[in-house]
Write a structure and sequence with these properties.
This protein has one domain. About 75% of the residues lie in helices and about 0% in strands.
């Protein structure tokens, strides 16, 4: 059997292990989903009229704010879900499973690949669930073509892959699962200081660069452009560049930590 076939076989086995682990403990994934769902419902039904009037500069229109808000919440869902990957990787490191896997005749990177692919699949399932909640409360994307929907799905998958690699690196570097969870909290907090809830142009001048030059804002604006027909501009290639850079950084970080001999 070739090295590639061995890598695929072992990675598939590790993926199955992680998916079974997630199925046994669904409460962990559901807890991470509560944050974006609660934020969606809170901003739509509590602040929706006020926020829509402020953004539109006219009368309150909650349906317009739902359309504006949902793309940001979908990417916030990814940031929330990948925290589980950081925690699970840290658990494997602390419980000695990774050390045990190092001694077995398996492809070394299959352990990490299993975590990454499993987390990306969970992210996509979470996005579908939160998207269904968005549709239930009034989100519609009637102008998007099939190609734009596929591009939006590809962007979401690429963004999930990038954040998952970063989360795996955090999990590998953390001394325990609690520290891994705390280290990954910026992945939830960054959307709060992006254009997910209000346009970056309405923020104070000293704060605006923080919102504009971070990974979430260009990805959110690109997703809005694809689903709602708004102007994408340079945000498309900036979002892809962020995803590629974060994926490369996370991959190098995670594999370096995994290959380091245990103390």
């Amino acid at each position: 059997m070739s090295a590639l076939a061995l890598a695929v076989r072992d990675s598939t086995t590790m993926l199955r292990r992680n998916l079974l682990h997630a199925r046994r403990y669904p409460s962990a994934t559901l807890n991470l989903l509560l944050t974006p769902i609660m934020m969606l419902l809170l901003f739509v039904y509590i602040f929706g009229d006020v926020m829509s009037a402020g953004i539109g500069g006219g009368g309150a229109d909650r349906s317009e704010y739902v359309a504006y808000l949902v793309p940001g919440i979908l990417l916030m869902t990814i940031g929330s879900t990948v925290i589980g990957a950081a925690v699970h990787v840290s658990m494997d490191m602390n419980e000695g499973l990774v050390a045990r896997f190092r001694t077995m005749a398996i492809h070394r990177t299959s352990v990490i690949i299993g975590h990454v692919v499993g987390s990306v699949l969970q992210c996509l399932a979470s996005v579908v669930l939160v998207g269904a909640v968005g549709v239930a409360i009034g989100f519609r994307s009637t102008d998007a073509t099939v190609v734009e929907w596929l591009a939006a799905f590809g962007l979401i998958a690429l963004f999930a892959l990038a954040l998952t690699w970063i989360a795996v690196g955090m999990g590998m570097s953390s001394p325990n699962p609690e520290a891994a969870s705390n280290a990954a909290m910026p992945l939830i907090l960054l959307p709060l200081i992006s254009s997910a809830f209000i346009p970056a142009s309405t923020m104070p001048g000293w704060f605006r660069p923080i919102a504009e030059y971070q990974p979430f804002t260009p990805a959110i604006e690109t997703l809005r452009g694809l689903l709602l027909g708004s102007e994408i501009g340079n945000d498309g290639w900036i979002a892809v560049a962020w995803c590629v850079a974060l994926t490369a950084l996370g991959y190098v970080w995670a594999t370096a930590r995994f290959n380091r001999d245990p103390a």
